[in-house]
Design goal:
This protein has 68 residues and is mainly alpha-helical. The chain has one domain. It has four helices and no strands. It is elongated, with a radius of gyration of 14 Å. InterPro entries: YgaP-like_TM. This is Inner membrane protein YgaP-like transmembrane domain-containing protein. Pfam families: YgaP-like_TM.
Length: 68
């Protein structure tokens, strides 16, 4: 569940920042770039800030209860 939430939040924020860049200011693309960088560093270091937040909120992961 935790992994699905992380992907949904990242994808939603990229889409929102793209929409804001098209309608308000191209500076919103920095948010999409930050999210992309965070996803890249997460794949290398296995550290994701959102995952730490979800762990603190006791959201289960796939390894704890199997895939849905």
């Amino acid at each position: 569940m935790r992994e699905r939430i992380i992907r949904a939040v990242a994808g939603s924020l990229v889409l929102i920042s793209t929409l804001l860049a098209l309608t308000i200011s191209t500076n919103w693309l920095w948010l999409a770039a930050f999210i992309g960088f965070n996803l890249l560093q997460s794949s290398v270091t296995n550290f994701c800030p959102l995952e730490k937040v979800l762990c603190a909120l006791k959201v289960p992961s796939y390894t704890e209860n199997g895939p849905l």
